[in-house]
Amino acid sequence: MNRSKILVVDDDDDFCELVVKKLIHNKMNAEGAKNGSRAMEILKHKEFDVVVLDVKMPGVSGIETLKWIKTNQPRVEVIMLTGDVSVEAGITGMQAGAFDYVSKPVPMNELMDKIRQAFEKKLGQKI
Predict the structure, then answer these.
(1) For residue range 57-98, what is the model confidence (pLDDT) as tens digits?
(2) CA torsion sign, 9 to 11 to 13 to 15?
(3) Looking at the whole model, is its pTM more than 0.85?
(4) What is the CATH number of the domain that holds 70?
């Protein structure tokens, strides 16, 4: 996993920073963005393997950001984070091309496992 490049997009600065630090500690390249607009700007200039993307953010929503990612960088695997009690947002994300979704609050080990699975799937794709 040490070659993986992960972008974490969440408007909760503390959560975003925590996940980025955990990924770096696990020898992954990680960067954070606090909203969908910033994520799209970063993705215009850098390539990532996996994006961890919050569904509900001010401005550009996670679903809108996911659709942009799948249009502009379709090989990027996206894991949706949803704080909703219902799984509707996660299902909508899956229908739009997300790899998977997890509900917040998410145990860090579960999120790390999902990121590893998404990266492994990306490695298995034909170039």
Answers:
(1) 999 999 999 999 999 999 999 999 987 655 676 677 778 889
(2) negative
(3) yes
(4) 3.40.50.2300
